[in-house]
Amino acid sequence: MFKNITIDEKNKDILIKAISKDRINHCYIFVGPTGTNKRESAIEFIKAILCTEEEKPCNKCISCVKINNNNHPDFIDILPTENSIKISQLREMQRKMNIKPYESNYKVFLINNSETMGIPAQNSLLKSLEEPNSRVVMILISKSSQSLLPTILSRGQILHFNPLGRIKFEEEVSNYNLNTKGIEDLYNLSQGCIAKAKYILDNPEEILKFDKFRDYIYNIIKRDYNKVFQFSKWIKDNSIPNEDVLNNMLIIFKNILYARIQVDINEGKEVSDYLTYESIHDIIQDIIDLQSSLKYNINFQLQIERLLLKIQEEK
């Protein structure tokens, strides 16, 4: 298992032992930022649960092939509709839980982007967790445990998927022949999330887009008022997802914070004197709060323009 997936050794051991000892919990919660191979690891684990061969997953048996083709009747892949997991989807899941597996010993439900569930949806899910079916396995994928109810967290086995440290990250991208500056830029942009880093390497225009993004933010910090609305139009014209806008802003302001408190850091140094430590901290908190509100139907363009204007006013 996990031969071609970068995954934390502790998580790997937990999941491999669950398969080898046939001690599979009724609920797992995979938590971590985008690009840490949560979904890839979940699919690999699900294939192993449903695989019919000794070496699991074999990727050759009919079960593995069906999962790879996304047509296994005992694997239900639940994705957000209109940016969130709806209570109607969970009620349909509960209905399917009462039906015996068609081809396997288990029926496995994968709930993607679990952080997008509202409180009513989470309460609906809780009913399934409180009365687990021995033939059912649920895997929740979430960017943050804070967005899930404590009662849900207490009923699942939580596995944390963390970004890679610098040394491990360099090992993973060593085949790409990057120079020191290239590795530094890639690590900074991906924040150590290896799946995101490999996507960037396959799409080098993403680095140029981030450079342009950062230039806009730096100019806004330097009190160029016109850049606020130019930037808002630019992210809309380039169809940059709301989540990516906030992730990039978080990366930029964290680097500015590091530059503000450490004299030997170059990234962010150019604008670090424009903001106090307290104001940078407040901006980062505002970005995090806006990230949490994405699952609601907000006017994102208006909210981001308000945040940018606030950044200009900070001293």
UniProtKB/TrEMBL annotation:
Transmembrane segments: none annotated. InterPro entries: DNA_Rep/Repair_Clamp_Loader, P-loop_NTPase. One of its GO terms (biological process) is DNA-templated DNA replication. This is DNA polymerase III subunit delta.
